[in-house]
Specification:
Layout: H1 4-16, H2 23-29, H3 31-41, H4 44-51, H5 70-82, H6 89-95, H7 97-107, H8 110-116, H9 124-129, H10 136-148, H11 155-161, H12 163-173, H13 176-182, H14 199-211, H15 218-224, H16 226-236, H17 239-243
Length: 254
Amino acid sequence: MLSREKIIRAILQLEASDKSLAGESAKEHSPDLYRDACEAFATWEIALAYAGVRSLRRSVDTDSISCITAADVQASIRHECAIRNNLLPEFVKRRSPKLYSVAIRLLKSWENAVISAGIGPDDTLKRLKRKEFYDADTIVRLLRDRYARGEPMAQFKVLQSQYLLGLSAVRAFGTWGKALEIAEVPQCRSVNRMRSWSRRSVSLILREMLGNGESIEESSVAELDRHLHANATGLFGSWSAACKTIEGELPPVE
């Protein structure tokens, strides 16, 4: 996977070559770059913003209403979700009035627009309005179920498909990293993704690596994931001491 710096350079090269930077086009002519950008920056649009360039995708906030499609609205909603903006209609009307009005026109209601964008479950907005967040036991169960199904565990990915779960986890446990630790779920393995480090989070990642048949030899990990190696040796004193936590009970949540 490309680093953030290499992704930005590749985007700038695309811009210089006059290739389309619209998400759908980039996904076709540069699928690897598009995938890495979405993994490293949450969305293609955010990656473009970091690179200082503008996509050719129609902007719901700036373009003529007649040019905007339902797909544009759905993409904007997913972007709002990825950057952790509140999706309740009263907040959206103040923050992005054009997005809200176009969503109503094209998709009949804001709730329909959110559901059609894949932000689940279907009753998310009603439950959020009533402040019906999941309790701690339910959060742990849902996180474990999601991990068992092999679904992405990065916070923005959870927010995009299980919005109420993503919000409830941080509300209940303080941070996304701590929520995953309590659920005994390893954090996202991308070396470019921001991770919170503790003895428990290191142990969870090492257990996942061993379960997947990956090498946990110190030289291999130091080369492929220097952040994991550096934090493991810093927290445990040595790589071998960190590896000893693979067996037995997990270190406690700090």
